[in-house]
Structures are given as C-alpha cells and as structure tokens.
Design a protein that fits this description.
single chain, alpha/beta, 11 strands, DUF3097_C
C-alpha cells in the first residue's frame, strides 16, 4: 500500500484551479503561450495527447495541445477539454469573429460616426459587423461618393468625443480619392480604404461561386461589365443582392477590407 504524501507546497504558491471548458465548434479562445486567437475548428486525439485546431479571422489555422491552463476565454485562464458526444453547440461569436454577448442591448448611439462610400458598402458592413456596431453604439452612414467629403467633415465638426471614420473604395496613391482623404485626415478624422474598384470585389470569389472577379475594360461601367462577363442579367441591384446573400461571416471577405473596418471601429470607439 502506498503511503499518503501530504502536499507541502505553501498555499500562496499553489495554482488556483481553473474551469474546464468544452472545446465546442466556434468557441473563440486565445492560446496563452503564443497569443494566437481563433475559433475552434476541431479536436483530435493524437499519440501526444488531445489537440485543438483554431482558425483566426483571416482564415489561418494553428494546432495546439490541449494542456491545462493553456487558453484564455474572454480574458480568463481555462483548460480546454474535448466536448462530450451530442453536447449543445451555442454560437460564441458574431459574424465579424468577435465574442458574442447573448442578450446584450444596443448602446445609445455615440456622437462619432463611420461613413462609407455607398449603400452597398453600408449593407456589407451591417451584414458582418452589425452586432458589434450596435453593442458599441456606432452608426454607419453612406456618402454616395467622396467628392463632397471635405464639406461633410466640416459640417460634422469632429472632435475628441466625436471621432469620424471614413471607408473609401479604391484608395490608392495618386488617385482622386487619396487627394481628398489628405484634405480631411486629422487627429479626429481617420480615412482608410481598400484597393478594390468597388466593394463587390472585397467579397471572396469562392464565396460567390466564381473563379475570380472579371477585369472590366476602362470606360465601361464596372458593375455592368461584371454582370456581362459573368453571364448575369445586367441588373446591378439584383446582382448585389445575390452577392450579399453569399456573405455569412468575415470568412467570406478579403483581409484588405476586414482590417480597414476593424481599424475604423477601434478609432471611433477610443475613450475620450
């Protein structure tokens, strides 16, 4: 018979127990050692022990051993364990990849705003970031182009408690858009953009079921040219609704747009 061996470790040196959390699909955690943050894709049993595969918001996968105290869940240390068979799967993140807050009420709208170029841009931002924006109290409006942006910024009157973020299509060096952006950018105004001619291109072709977005010759209306090249009816409104219906989460968008929208949300929600 083995004799009892008392634990002589001083109480202040003993590790406090941490909760065990089933690694259910879509649970968003951060690996302690590397800081990699992602959603659970699957768990596997290996010769070295159980592992969990995480996917970050840009689609990158990493495999980690499910070691005790190895992960953070909403900032708290936890031990991931394999989920039991038939266990309930609850949504744990929003379409943008953020941690979901069940039952959260929308915050009263902030004075700060995010402007996007057009209605399609606004609908796409709402589709992916709508839950986040309501919790943060951020309103998104659209400009119908950037030509009047200096006047709009002047009328808005941005300040420390009313920051303004602007998302611009096809913001590349030397363009008209870049010159207008330079006129209004300041301590309380942030203008960012993506390289695409139109926000349609920010949706991954694979999500829409095509190999690539067509190259439309200069001088043609880009959206109409896309419909023509893909054999779609030349109804750009209907085409956009088809594209938007294929967007279910951040995974359906290109990283160049994801990063810019996240940057704007962070900017307008900074503490005063």
């Amino acid at each position: 018979m083995r004799s009892y061996q008392p634990d002589l470790t001083p109480p202040w040196k003993r590790s406090a127990p941490v909760p065990e959390v089933p690694a259910e699909p879509d649970l968003v955690v951060e690996e302690v050692a590397t800081g990699f943050c992602g959603a659970v894709i699957r768990c596997e049993k290996t010769a070295q022990g159980p592992t969990v595969t995480l996917e970050d918001r840009f689609g990158k996968h990493r495999v980690f051993p499910m070691e005790p105290r190895g992960f953070l869940l909403e900032g708290k240390v936890v031990t991931l364990v394999r989920p039991g068979p038939g266990g309930p799967v609850r949504p744990t993140r929003t379409a943008s990849g953020s941690v979901a807050v069940p039952g959260a009420r929308a915050r009263v709208a902030r004075a700060g705003r995010i402007y996007v170029e057009g209605r399609h841009d606004a609908e796409l931002v709402e589709r992916v970031w709508g839950d986040d924006l309501r919790i943060e109290g951020v309103v998104v409006e659209y400009l119908e182009g950037v030509d009047d942006l200096p006047a709009i910024v002047g009328e808005f009157g941005p300040g420390p408690d009313a920051r303004l973020g602007v998302l611009v299509d096809h913001l590349v060096p030397g363009s008209k858009e870049s010159r207008i952006a330079a006129q209004v950018t300041g301590d309380h105004v942030l203008v960012v953009g993506h390289p695409y001619i139109d926000v349609w291109e920010a949706v991954k072709p694979s999500s829409v079921g095509i190999d690539a977005w067509p190259v439309v010759p200069r001088g043609q209306d880009w959206k109409t040219g896309v419909c023509r090249a893909l054999g779609w009816p030349e109804n750009t409104g209907a085409a956009w609704q088809h594209i938007l219906s294929k967007v279910r989460s951040y995974k359906d968008l290109e990283p160049q747009l994801l990063g810019r929208v996240e940057e704007l949300i962070d900017f307008v929600t900074l503490p005063e």
